[in-house]
Design brief:
The chain contains 4 helices and 8 strands. It is of the alpha+beta class. It has one domain: Pnp Oxidase, Chain A. Strands 1, 2, 3, 4, 5, 6, 7 and 8 form an 8-stranded antiparallel beta sheet that branches. The two termini are about 15 Å apart.
Length: about 140
Amino acid sequence: MLTDRQRHFLAARRVGHLATTGRNAEPHVVPVCFAIDGQTLYIAIDHKPKRTGGRLQRIANILANPQVCFIADRYDEDWARLGWVMLRGPAEILADGYEHDAAQVLLKKRYPQLAGMNLTGLPVIAMRIARASDWGEV
């Protein structure tokens, strides 16, 4: 599904944006840390120090409507260098198990900030890439 060019572009991006909607179809977009393995994009859920209880909106939305969209882009003052890669597909929440643990290892390798965190017991979002598109200098 992903081209080598798209994979290279995504590997060079440090942040992407995840768009979800719940049952009410209200859009919710948040910046996220991510890693890709095969045809799955993994998104880390870390400790939210400002959050006091309750479920994150992105998780509640995925449980209500698993169809999500992810985009990573590059802005440059030289507009000839603008570009983005967009991924669409169903997402699921991994609470535990082999894939969950492997995804956390992958995310910790990509983001040294996560390596120092105890992510045990925290979920991972797994987006199964169904469609990929791009624009610009990818």
